[in-house]
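Dear colleagues,

As part of the handover before I leave the project, I'm documenting each prediction I ran so the next person doesn't have to rerun anything. This entry is a single chain, and its sequence is reproduced below.
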Amino acid sequence: MAKKPSKAQSGTQTLKPVESIAKTVRLTDVSVVQFHGEKNLKDREDIRLDVAYSTRTKTEALPTEKAIKVLAEFEMAARQSKDDSSPLVVGISLNLALTYACESVGEFSPEALNDFGRLNGVYNAWPYWREFLQSSTVRMGLPPLIAPPFRIAEQMPKRRAIRTAAKKRSPKSKQAKPNRRQVVP
């Protein structure tokens, strides 16, 4: 009887085609396709929010241009409960187009290209998303929301809790935790 591959082995098998593509590409352009921000919250209102992150990708081979195009769609939705049907309190989305030069684009299967977009495309776009999310929350009059680091093994954390306003601290507690963010674990 054939042995079923372990999760680690199966993950390695998925990464091999991505690695072969990544070795042949050069990121040539990152551009914003669309963005949106929405705040349904009174100023200075202090409530606990449940934050959900999502990412989608679409990958397209462009053989005549010798390129691969990845559309990376990022979304953050903050609600008062984990129930996705509860009203949206804060929502931010960003769609980025990443273009990679690739001489051998025709050699890769659609599955390998999709895996490349889902992993490498999101990995390359993640810093742009983090900056956009943080600056957008500040511009909305909210404490800065810092997206967690992108981790390929986890794909991305799905939920996180935050507060909409900074808690008042005594000078002593402020000195004890100078780098503490407004994110509540």
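The helical segments are 7-22, 110-139, 171-176. The first helix runs from residue 7 to 22.

All the best with the project,
I.
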